[in-house]
């Protein structure tokens, strides 16, 4: 696993050892960031179900200002810390070991808001609808925020809050799909 582009291009990243974590493939990551724009002019991201931190680190490499990484697995948290140290980017990162829903509540209590959210939970285990409702209800997203959902090919994102508009949906194999949503409070 490696960083594809930006400041840390070609740097290798550690994977979570002996884990059920399913890292985003380079092919999917490259297509995703090609759509989002090759580089960012700042912005704050939340990498929920972060695993190794692969997606958030790619965002930092391409110009995001700050990433909050969340995972409940202790091996994943250790790996994220190792990857952050390897690249010397600790000042641009926060790492939390927590359940996704508790982490969202904690972020709300700290009045955090995000411009980008990476959602890549274990397939079939977490409701995207519930996650998106919490992101909306807790006011964690800036207007115009982009939410990237990696999910099983045959999963459909249903019962989404009306503030989320689907702007792209692509399948990258018969097992992986990406749905990109934009958060709009009605002003855009």
Helix count, DSSP H or I runs of 4 or more residues: 5
So what's the overall shape? globular
Strand order of the largest sheet: 3-2-1-4-5-7-6
Question: Are there runs of 5+ residues with pLDDT below 50, and where?
Answer: none
Order of helices and strands: HEHEHEHEHEEE
Q: How many individual β-strands?
A: 7
* Multimeric status of the protein: single chain
Radius of gyration: 15 Å
Pfam family, one: Cons_hypoth95
Protein name: 16S rRNA (Guanine(966)-N(2))-methyltransferase RsmD
Keywords: Methyltransferase, Transferase
Region (Disordered): 1-23
Structural key phrases:
single chain; 28% helix; 188 residues; transferase; Rossmann fold; 16S rRNA (Guanine(966)-N(2))-methyltransferase RsmD; SAM-dependent_MTases_sf; seven-stranded mixed sheet; DNA_methylase_N6_adenine_CS; methyltransferase activity; alpha/beta
Please provide a written account of the structure.
- The chain is an alpha/beta fold and 188 residues long.
- It has one domain: Vaccinia Virus protein VP39 (Rossmann fold), CATH 3.40.50.150.
- Helix content is 28%, strand content 27%.
- The chain has five helices and seven strands; from the N terminus they run αβαβαβαβαβββ.
- It has helices spanning 26-36, 54-61, 74-87, 100-109, 128-137; strands at residues 44-48, 66-71, 93-97, 114-119, 141-152, 164-171, 176-183.
- A seven-stranded mixed beta sheet has the order 3-2-1-4-5-7-6.
- α5 links the parallel β4 and β5 (141-152).
- The radius of gyration is 15 Å and the shape is globular.
- The mean pLDDT is 89.
